[in-house]
Amino acid sequence: MNHKHKIIVISFDGLGSDDWTIIEKLPHFKAFLEEAAYCKTVETVYPSLTYPAHCTIATGRYPVHHRVIHNTLLQPGRMASPDWYWKRKYIKGKTIYEAAKEKGMKTAAFLWPVTAGANIDYHIPEIFANRKWDHQILASLRSGSVKLQAEVFARYGKLMHGIEQPYLDDFIHQSILYTLKKYEPDFTLIHYVDLDSMRHHYGHSSPEALKALKRHDQRLGELMDLLKGEPVTWVLLGDHSSLDEDKAIRLNRVLERAGWLKRDKKGNIQSYQVLMRGADGSAYLYGRPELAQQVQAELERFSREHDDCLEAIYSAEEAGRQGADDTCLFMLEAKKGYYFQDTLEGPDIYEIHPEECISTPHMQMATHGYSPKKEGYTTVFAMRNSGAEGAKQGKLPALAKGEVASYMHLADEGPTIAHLFGGVLPEADGMLRKEFFA
Q: Comparing 162 with 332, which gets the higher pLDDT?
């Protein structure tokens, strides 16, 4: 391999601050953290969903500014399976991978959210076939590097079971090892989803989640072994944590009974004056401003009658101040133990049964999307250089060691990562955290 300084950013989806006591005992995480500068308490974005969070990491901007304000697009006619914010075109602002390209770096990205169609040299985007006539491999090929994907699908495609985990991460991991060895990109973004998937299906502290952390530990070890002796700066981070819940709030049923939402003969939403769009632990309400007072009164009544299940009702202005979509009518925060579902079927409050969560879409044992102010809901960030042998091979930025910050925001990560290669994100809301640099 060449001895040019490389930067590898690894996002472990769903990795929370409370996982620190576990990962610091796992062999490869332990070895990493002993030489790292880190923050164990990183505040995420609102709503704390994967796509808004990763766009904040990539731009240093809050969702209200980068405008990826949800995982999925607002498509009332496709509420059961809307399209996601897969494409780079949805992001407002400069990204770290574009800043790296400006510095002459070869870039790579693997399942990094909202990068479909981006100018990335070696690219396997996070996208799935969302039409009956489409195919997963074709959807990926259209949106990323055709040559690279053809190579890895031929070599490792048998590891995949569609987008099911942990098989998808197993496939993407082998693809990453192959790309790093053959093409030697200078700046690489990696997104692993195994842990988050297990928590949705089985619960935040489930044995399955622990097994996923151990699989991640093995993946980290294999990556570092591959590049042993090379000049690499490694960045490990989480995007959000998760919380267990056992009840789902189905407010669209309430809005339909109030006459603010209508369905066609097939049961799809035909028109609405007010519509709830669930973001798991939070929800947006969109609709006519002149109905705001009536809607708020109905929401307050509903919450009182159902164990005060709505912890907060925010105005559009209040949502925007927290970094969320300021074009909504209201933003709702669920009480701990509850989350939101868009469906118009079943009871207004649905009791979740664990066995449903393994295979039934939208049924979850643990989820995210909640306010970043929820107690015990932060994530983590850590950076380190390769060992002494690697440092001799190329110039590495001088990094601090140990816990350097008691608190930081997810928006600080983009400017801090960009500083590693002399890049700047001029529109960032977050700040360069100089504590990480010796």
A: 332
